[in-house]
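Data deposition worksheet. Section B asks for the primary sequence of the deposited chain exactly as it was used as input, without tags or linkers unless they were present during the calculation. Section C holds the resulting structure in token form. Section D is free text for depositor observations; keep each observation to a single sentence. Incomplete worksheets are returned to the depositor.
Section A, Depositor: J.P.
Section B:
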Amino acid sequence: MSLIKNCLIKCKEKKAYVIAAAAVLCVVVGIFITVIVMQSSKDEITYKEALAETGILSVGVTETGSVDVGTTLQSFDLDISQFAGETGYSWAGSGMGGMDMMAGMMSGSQSNGSAGSSSDARTLEVEEVYVKAGQEVHEGDPILKLTAESVDSIRTELTEDETSALLSYEQALTVNKQTQVSADSDYKTNTLYSAYARSEYEQTVKKLQETVEEKQELLEETQESLLEAQKKLADKEALLTEETQVLENALFIVNGIEREGNLYWWIDAWQTKEDTETMVEALKEEIEELSESIEDYKEQIESTELEVTLAQKELELGALEAEAQLELRTFKAENAQEIYDVAIEQGDFDMESAKAAYEDAQEKLSEFDGKIVEQVIYSSGNGLITDVYVEAGDVLTQNASLISLNDYDAVTITLSVDEDDMEAAAVGSPVNVTIAAFPEQIFEGQVTEIGDAEINSNTNKTVYTVIVTVQNTGELFYQDMTAEVTFLTDETEEVLYIPNRAITTEDGKSFVTVRDGNGTIETREVTTGFTDGINTEIKEGLSEGEIVLWEVGVRKS
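Section C:
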């Protein structure tokens, strides 16, 4: 108004028609300036937008808890162990026309060692560590550097392992071919068993039986000879007794009568004495010979009886062995194809095992070259380092721990839940999780553990410690942050919904601000339905995909 007043004062010094024109001009200028000042002082309003989309809305019991972000351990997981396969093979063929169940391979020497044994564990030496606890790393970032000497040494050993494994594989290929040839031969032999297996059994038993019979006949003959000798001995002894009495009588006569007066009787008696003496001597010799023969017969009988017993035992054992052999040959004849298949499969298995060992040795060398580039080991994941377990000068063995990172796939929330609300908090029950930093984003989870009941000293109520595991958190959660967990008690079918913040109410009606594809903004009345506290169902007034706006702040110009 001071500007208009100044104009009017100046107009008084002009002529009348000039005064009127100047007054009008001053008024117009004043109005223009006032408009400019008013426009420049308007507040600038900022908006946030969201799409109307379809989904399931749910409600339940909400509790506040503390976030615990798990950790994942990165270890030195390269396999640098010594070659554990067989270093050589020798042929174990099927001898004696297929008597073995099958042909196969036998390891020619012991393996070079096994992973993890304390005496042969391979190690790498740490030259420098690049990271520390509290540092953020990404996949591919360098963690530490190894000494060139230790890296070259392990690589040389892995190369030698690959060479040994290749040699074993080539040997296994050769032995497998021999196995196939032997299996073919055994198959032909086994199929012939059925034709003579029974005859072979009978001949074996018959031969053993004949041996027993021969020994038995010899025993019986010897026993008969003994009896005959004993009978002759008895006859000779009886005759000796008679002849001895005759000799005594003849001697009595010869010595008892006069020869001149009884010459005839004396001569007869003397002749009888001479003949009897000769007979007695002959009988004594025969008796002695018969006695010796009897002793020989007795010894021979004792020996033959033992031979008969042994032959009978051999018959029993031989019959059992022959029967077992018969059963084995019969089995082979009846299962010739299966025996062949097993031999072939065993040969193939050993060959494939050697091949796998060779491929494993190749893979170990390839992984070593791929993961240790210029002596450096790199991070295998993303996250915040919570611990570093190595330092310069340490030696690394297989599976040694290197660092631990936050594991955003193992995020849990610990809550205290009143007994009255535990019905919705059973193990496996779904939950929705929100955090203050992202209030409109809902994370899904489920109850994974329920602790023992305790009494809250402040409320005197029974409470339970409930642990919820949250899925797909990305890197939005961090240790000890506060989160709200809703144990679901009710939910909708698929409905159209928008954020609660986009809805305003006036006189009991609900309105939203909508922007179309051309940028035109309008206020529209809508009909609302179910709400989960963050989003609200829109029954009428919006279509899926439309953009709604709401004020999020005012900035002074």
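Section D:
The chain has a mean pLDDT of 82.
Helices lie at 2-11, 16-40, 95-98, 148-256, 263-334, 336-371.
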